[in-house]
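Tokenised fold entry reproduced for absentees:

. . .
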Amino acid sequence: MAGPTEEQRRAADPGVSAWVSASAGSGKTRLLIDRVLRLMLAGTEPGRILCLTFTRAAAAEMATRLARRLGQWATLGEQDLARDLAELTGEAPSTEAMRRARALFAAVLDLPGGMKIETIHAFAQGLLRRFPIEAGVAPRFALIEEAEAAALLASAREAALAQAPLSEKGARAVARLAALAPPERLGEAIRSLLPVRGKPGLAATGNSAEGVAAAQRRVLGVGLEEDAETILREACRPDPVRETDLVRLAALWIEVGGDAHE
């Protein structure tokens, strides 16, 4: 594997703050790993380093590659290790740096739970678990999975329709919706009215005539400025090809209709 470029080496310097923007596959993960390695070589304890990513896959990949690199340092010969550290830092390593590089693998293995490489969501969840009272949440809260959330929502929806007394207006709304949607898609139709992940559903955004009309136009592909007259005019706009077909169809219809009449 080729060593880091001079720009990558500068961005991995733990003594400076760096903002890196690059396309996929350009080496951002390697740069982050290099920065973590240089932090530990400079004397920072592994347990005091926190790495946050957006996805679990990215966190797992980073942890795996970091452990592999530290394992290599623990087994490399003196010359190979000195060369690797020189490529990483841009300068010849000291005897202390060589000694610390070899000891880092064991130091990370001894950490309870390993290096703190996790997603932003997991980090936030950990903070809430440590300070539930300050955050205003139940001390023993649990995160709900997607499948469980969908099942609970479906159960609550069915229970509400089956047991809750509906007003006359609500009963008419459910009856009209049931008439428009087949039985197997009634739940899906109701679900489209409800908010999902903080986004308002049709019931919230379309609780007025204007909101419902806007939603209908989006589904039907009709522009906001179009009305019945403009839609009809567009549908009946003369088309040379279509006009010829209509004339032929009309002639056939008259002929067949005449025979049938007689």
Observations:
- Strands lie at 50-53, 116-119.
- Residues 79 and 85 are 10 Å apart (CA to CA).
